[in-house]
Write a structure and sequence with these properties.
Blueprint: E1 2-6, H1 23-33, E2 37-39, H2 46-55, E3 56-58, E4 64-66, E5 97-99, E6 101-110, E7 113-122, H3 126-137, E8 149-150, H4 154-164, E9 169-172, H5 192-196, E10 205-207, H6 214-218, E11 227-229, E12 244-248, H7 253-261, E13 268-273, E14 284-286, E15 291-293, H8 295-300, H9 316-323, E16 339-341, H10 345-353, H11 360-373, H12 376-381, H13 385-392, H14 394-405, E17 407-411, E18 420-422, H15 426-434, E19 453-454, H16 466-471
Parallel strand pairs: 1-2, 2-5, 6-8, 10-11, 13-16
Antiparallel strand pairs: 1-12, 3-4, 6-7, 7-9, 12-13, 14-15, 17-18, 17-19
């Protein structure tokens, strides 16, 4: 069965998260988005695990569903129609399944340096989750945050979860994030093996994070052994499914874990991705000074902010380039699974209508589209463009077409600041305010005062051309590789 899963999210017990991150709303928003299997998140927190036990009941092997008495009766009602697709979407919130997951922040010293690594954990059941919880409670405080901070080596965490159940799985989370990840520029390692040492063989998948996509990762051959997964890391129900995984397996814990544990089986079909430039750590920079640099500019400035003189936060694109050993992801020797770069539907509607994402107007339009398309991901991924015109108008049709073709306008994120991805130029946006349908009169596809950039592996700033060589003449590259 082909379905979509989002395994890394959080609960209302995590710091800086929505109070609506409870099973009722999580199940409902997963249904709206088109997510069939959703991670519980935060199972290490005693209060959250107790809430999960109260509100969920067993479903398929290793999975859970919401008890009927907790199901929300909210608009929109179950969809009136759905475009036929190869993927199965949950027909109601009660058909969403939960898989037991949680994230640990490991902060510890290794080889004389402080390491900060976030790890995503899967367990076969809530009972196995409780075994892990009891062991971690002896090591540190697991009650202060849904994502606990523990002074525990990542390798030792992996040993603990395997002792609890040999069918548990650990996935290094958002592996390129500068501050908290296995390959992060500030406190990570240079390889997965260096982090997990003798237990590295049990790492079969890594999470790419919002600021990178599969092509960026595949220029690093050291990641060839791993399946590249993507998840939303949602801190609110509305963000569920902003990144997710496409699977073709039975809906069960063992089916999902097998899909994430074996390469080239046909069970893992690819990912749904943010445009990585929108991620808040894509480029280098210093947010306080408003300095956003591509990696070449960072090198030319010696890695320091030209405004205040402090060190820049080295972003994901730069870090990937440091560890890259291929000039093109197509040279990867492994089978490249497909991926889809998407813009959330409310974000598209907000751009088209010039209204805030949380306004009543955008909410009404969103609900109307979901009723007619079946789910958000079905609309963005599979609904024919002609049908989109019928249910959402020609402007939305063109916006989704451009998104699918990666014809976008890009402002990169940096140092904790999200980037911006748009499908219309400023001139087009102004026209949209004045006209109900821009494209009825503009058959050429719209005005473009400056051409859009294709949002696919935009490493143009790292291409070592003769012009780049002239620019960097005499600059100390510090052993850094420029591709």
């Amino acid at each position: 069965m082909q379905f979509i899963g989002d395994f890394h999210i959080h609960s209302h017990f995590s710091v800086a998260t929505s109070r609506n991150l409870i099973p009722e709303y999580m199940s409902y928003w997963a249904y709206l988005k088109g997510i069939t299997v959703l991670g519980t998140g935060d199972f290490t927190h005693p209060g959250w695990l107790a809430e999960l036990k109260e509100k969920l009941i067993p479903a398929e092997e290793g999975l859970y569903k919401l008890k009927p008495e907790y199901s929300l009766k909210l608009s929109p009602s179950p969809p009136r129609m759905q475009t036929p697709t190869p993927f199965s979407f949950p027909p109601s919130p009660s058909d969403v399944r939960f898989i037991t997951t949680g994230e640990i922040s490991n902060i510890y010293k290794k080889n004389g340096k402080v390491k900060k690594v976030h790890n995503l954990i899967f367990t076969p059941s809530l009972e196995d989750a409780e075994k892990v919880q009891l062991k971690l409670a002896k090591i540190g405080n697991i009650s202060s945050d849904g994502r606990p901070i523990l002074g525990l080596d990542s390798r030792d965490l992996l040993e603990i979860i395997l002792d609890a159940s040999e069918n548990s799985l650990l996935v290094p989370a958002h592996i390129w994030t500068p501050w908290f990840s296995v390959l992060g520029s500030n406190s990570g390692f240079d390889s997965v093996e260096e982090c997990y040492t003798d237990l590295s063989k049990y790492i079969t998948a890594v999470e790419t994070g919002l600021s990178s996509d599969p092509p960026m990762n595949r220029i690093c051959s050291r990641l060839d052994p791993y399946i590249l997964i993507s998840n939303s890391d949602a801190h609110s129900p509305e963000n569920i499914g902003r990144e997710a995984n496409l699977l073709n397996t039975e809906i069960s814990y063992s089916g999902i874990i097998h899909a994430l544990s074996k390469t080239n089986t046909g069970r893992f079909l690819g990912t749904i991705e943010f445009f990585p430039q929108e991620g808040k750590y894509h480029f280098d920079g210093h947010r306080k000074c408003g300095v956003c640099f591509d990696p070449v500019s960072t090198i030319k400035n010696g890695g320091y902010c030209p405004v205040c003189g402090k060190k820049l936060t080295i972003g994901v694109m730069n870090r990937v380039a440091q560890l890259a050993d291929r000039e093109n992801f197509e040279n990867s020797i492994i089978d490249n699974t497909p991926f889809h770069s998407l813009i959330p539907l409310k974000q598209l509607l907000s751009e088209i209508h010039g209204a805030g994402i949380k306004t009543k107007k955008i909410t009404y339009l969103y609900n109307s589209l979901i009723k007619n398309a079946g789910s958000e991901l079905n609309l963005l991924l599979f609904t024919p463009l002609k049908k989109i015109s019928e249910i959402g108008g020609d402007t939305l049709r063109e916006g989704i077409r451009r998104m699918r073709e990666r014809e976008i306008y890009i402002k990169e994120g940096y140092d904790g600041e999200y980037g911006e991805i748009k499908v219309f130029s400023e001139e087009e946006v102004r026209s949209l305010v004045l006209k109900e349908s821009l494209f009825e009169e503009q058959n050429t596809g719209g005005i473009r005062s400056s051409p859009p950039r294709r949002g696919l592996l935009d490493f143009s700033c790292l291409l070592y051309t003769s012009d780049a060589a002239d620019e960097l003449d005499g600059v100390d590259l510090g052993g850094r590789r420029i591709i």
